[in-house]
Write a structure and sequence with these properties.
Layout lengths: L7 H6 L4 E2 L2 E3 L2 E3 L5 E5 L6 E6 L3 H18 L4 H17 L1 H12 L3 H22 L5 E9 L8 E11 L2 E5 L7 H12 L3 E5 L6 H12 L7 E3 L6 H8 L5 E5 L2 H14 L2 E5 L5 E4 L5 H8 L1 H4 L11 E5 H17 L18 H16 L3 E4 L16 E4 L6 H4 L6 E7 L2 H9 L6 E5 L3 H10 L4 E4 L17 E2 L4 H7 L1 E9 L1
Parallel strand pairs: 1-5, 8-9, 8-11, 9-10, 11-12, 13-14, 13-18, 14-17, 16-17, 18-19
Antiparallel strand pairs: 2-3, 4-5, 6-7, 7-21, 12-20, 15-16
Helix pairs in contact: 2-8, 3-5, 3-7, 4-5, 5-6, 10-12
Length: 501
């Protein structure tokens, strides 16, 4: 089957605001509460109008997903795989139009939107097309039972079988409007679940495009539903809806706590990817060029709007001064500005409100006595857009707000340490535990230190990710694990089958 082109109207519409409708039960539905504006963070112009779903419409989307679950959960794995594969084909075939949309609504640079948003989304649909075919049964050793009150002696066989959870509310983050939703939708569908997707309010238009691709790929009506809103109401309605069996959320720890409280009332299953304040431990024998390149991604990658960023640099005193100097030089070389220009590295932050928030942290760092080595100001060019120059603070202490709180912007803080014990203690002095990093020329020491860090992942001499490795956080950085086959486990329940041998 050759997928039909989806985006002729989308490509044309980028010249003027795009008006979306809710996607419920396979139909485009006018919102009860009107529309709100989606703003381009680089130009401050309106990209499109996103629908404001009422509480009743969110519940209608969940009801449609519940109705569709009865059939979708019983489809053959090969059929689910074929839908996901075709969706990947469609996304790849229209990648340039989707890239332009992602740049316009998220402010990501063109290279980032193309390679790390749209391409990763297609790859995730492709990965979970294969995932739909992974075995769901695990045979267990037979158990010999002696005669007793439960009956005669015998041998009992058993299987542990993964079953779909049901209706999953996927509440996604604004920093990656393609890869993050795809990372939830694809494994959920592969396991036979149906979904209600509530995108971040800042950049929801890409998710509607993704839903259309899935529908064109053959996802039956109600299997994928999309609802949006400019505030918290739509997400709250999805979380507390009786027809929703599981909530998969990516976002702040504060919001995650509130979702967890609501889910706890009815024992809804949860997958939570929450905040981070990643520590980068740089030892005296580290390759400083490699460390600077890795830490420097905080300044550029999504303009620091990424929970896995190494934002706390904990450097051995022997290399502290050189590392600060090199990081400052690295930050000063990065071009900030129009994300559509090929040499731009640092795009805008997602909104004026978030730019103001990041600037307030820069001011807080100054007042608390940290030394601002580079950046932190609004660049003189371009004149429009929500830009903040990458900021580097040195001479920090553990009690400062810029050290303790997730800023979610291009801000790096540097603290010194004397020995391994102090480095591990400083790294662990946080409520977060998503991903930390260790740079050292002594591989044995690097892995020893990694084993002592209370975080869901540790990069040893790299900020790279293995996309089959489990992803999730310790402490208040989340609940559960996804990515690779671990995502299939996350979107399933275990059922035990026992029989007499």
């Amino acid at each position: 089957m050759t997928p039909e082109p989806l985006t002729e109207s989308l490509a044309e519409s980028l010249a003027e605001p795009l008006t979306e409708r809710l996607f419920i039960g396979g139909e485009r539905v006018a919102p009860d509460d009107g529309w709100y504006e989606v703003v381009n963070p680089a130009t401050e112009e309106v990209v499109g109008l996103a629908p404001e779903a009422s509480r009743a419409q969110v519940h209608a989307a969940a009801a449609a997903a519940k109705d569709a679950f009865a059939v979708w959960s019983r489809t053959r794995p090969e059929e689910r795989a074929a839908v996901l594969d075709r969706a990947a084909d469609l996304i790849q075939g229209e990648s340039e139009a989707y890239t332009r949309l992602a740049v316009a609504e998220s402010g990501a640079t063109t290279a980032t939107a193309r390679g790390m948003q749209v391409a990763v989304a297609a790859a995730r649909f492709r990965r979970y097309a294969k995932g739909a075919l992974e075995p769901v049964e695990q045979p267990l050793p037979p158990q010999i039972s002696a005669a007793g009150p439960m009956g005669k002696a015998g041998v009992l066989g058993a299987l542990a079988v993964r079953r779909p959870v049901g209706v999953v509310a996927c509440i996604t983050s604004y920093n990656n409007p393609w890869a993050n939703p795809a990372g939830k939708i694809a494994p959920a569908l592969a396991m036979g679940n149906t979904v209600v997707v509530k995108p971040a309010p800042q950049d929801p238009l890409s998710v509607y495009a993704m839903a259309r691709a899935l529908a064109a790929a053959g996802a039956p009506p109600g299997v994928v539903n999309v609802v949006t809103g400019s505030g918290a109401a739509a997400g709250e309605a999805a979380v507390d809806c009786p027809d929703v069996d599981m909530v998969s959320f990516t976002g702040s720890t504060a919001v995650g706590r509130r979702i967890g409280e609501v889910c706890g009332r009815t024992m809804k299953r949860q997958l939570m990817e929450l905040g981070g304040k990643g520590a980068a431990l740089v030892f005296d024998d580290a390759d400083l060029d490699s460390a600077v390149r890795g830490i420097g991604t905080t300044f550029s990658f999504y303009s620091g709007q990424i929970c896995t960023a190494p934002t706390r640099v904990i450097a051995h005193r022997a290399v502290y001064g050189r590392l600060v100097e090199r990081l400052a030089a690295y930050a000063s070389r990065l071009k900030a500005g129009d994300p559509t220009e090929p040499d731009t590295v640092v795009g805008p932050l997602i909104s004026a409100a978030h730019r103001d928030r990041v600037e307030s942290y820069v001011e807080s760092g100054r007042k608390e006595g940290a030394r601002l080595v580079a950046g932190g100001e609004r660049p003189g060019s371009p004149e429009r857009g929500f830009h903040v120059a990458p900021a580097l603070f040195a001479d920090c202490t553990g009690g400062m707000r810029v050290v303790r709180e997730e800023i979610f912007g291009p801000v790096v803080v540097v603290l010194p340490f004397e020995d391994e014990e102090e480095a591990v203690a400083l790294a662990g002095d946080t409520e977060y535990g998503l991903i930390d990093y260790v740079w050292s020329g002594d591989v044995a020491r690097a892995f020893r230190v990694a084993g002592r860090l209370r975080s869901g992942g540790v990069g040893v001499n790299t900020v790279g990710r293995n996309m089959e490795a489990p992803f999730g956080g310790f402490k208040q950085s989340g609940v559960g694990r996804d990515v690779g086959s671990y995502a299939l486990h996350a979107y399933s329940e275990l059922q035990a089958l026992v029989w007499p041998g």
